[in-house]
Amino acid sequence: MAGWQQGQTVELTINDLSNRGDGVGRWGDRVVFVADTVPGDRVRSRLTRVKPSHGFGKLLEVLEPSSQRVRPACIVADKCGGCQWQQVTYETQLMAKHQHIIEALQRIGGLTDVAVEPVLAAEPLAYRNKATYPLARASDGTIKAGYYRKGSHQLINLNRCPVQDPRLNPLLANLKQDIQDRGWSIYDESKHRGKLRHLSLRIGHHTGQVLLTLVSTGPLDGLEAQAQQWLESYPDIVGVCLNLNPAKTNAILGPHTDCIVGQPYLEETFVGLRFQIRPATFFQVNTVQAERLVQRMITALNLQGTETLVDVYCGVGTLTLALAQHAAHCIGIESQPEAVAQAQQNAALNGLQNTDFYVGKAEMPLAELFEGGIRPEIVVLDPPRKGCDPTVLSALLQLRPERIAYMSCNPITLARDLKLLCTAGYRLTQVQPADFFPQTAHVECVAFLVA
Question: What is the DSSP letter of 46?
Fold first, then answer.
């Protein structure tokens, strides 16, 4: 088709949403991805990047808005890169996520006859229990905190965010003012100069406890006095921490965190258990949805209290301890020693004596369990977005549990790993998605397999 070039303006109708969040339309026989669009929109777009079969466009104008388009809850939704779908009705978001899972299972996993349950819907706003804001200094000297503009490192300043727990919103503007009044230098990533890099807030959804963490390249003068003032001014703040990250890196947290005042963790309840959550602790940002999905797992696994269960990539024991209430013996495996120490503390905090935790890359403890003659009936997998390492799946297949529950935040790597497991003789019985991240294209799900 003639005229296919970067910078060209095209008109097209958006028909779908991609798994990266862009609207998808066609211009002739070519696919065009346009951010900030909604299925049913008729739009004018400028092509920013073109390939032989597809291209990417910038939205210039909505010529005819879709009936599935809504007014965003956020006043900077068109700029901020934190969300992709605030302009999309929530029902459309759920349908798109369901379809993305089905397509990944079919296209990548070759799994065409699978029961993918409807996505467990969430409260579409006010769900995030954690907010970590990069900091910058504006041209007038004021402190900015927010998220980066889409596709850039230009900071969009926020004083509130509609997707985070609303109890955090009143803190943000005041904390920025206090930081400004202290005169602390703000990190400039382009020059690798300055100190204060990020402001992080975590809240216990059920307890309301707040943990405040500053990320800096080095010590901050007067921090102890300011931290004590924050503790006295905001009763929900239970601790103020300082994480040191002097490296020239995009990683948010460095390896060392000090508690300045209060306690170095907040307490939260999760499926009836108590957990201590520290600045670097991985804990699902949507507490309510995580609890719902765990309850679905417990029901689907039909635990009788006699089983031995292994939880691979167990982190601080969130799943391990929840499942240990219904099994005879639960074993958690995690590569990070700090996370295992927290898992052990959380087990003791809840008086659970039927759990053991091992430090190591997942394939090594799995192999040791096999060599030691332990044959768990159930293995739970909850890997990072990249999915399971092939060595982990090989060790798992040697162990050969009767049932597997695979929890994933990435349908693509999930489908890849399920294909290998099903080729090795397992049968995929059910996939249960849950919306942990409304207003974004991300979706969590758990897949159940039997030998």
Answer: E
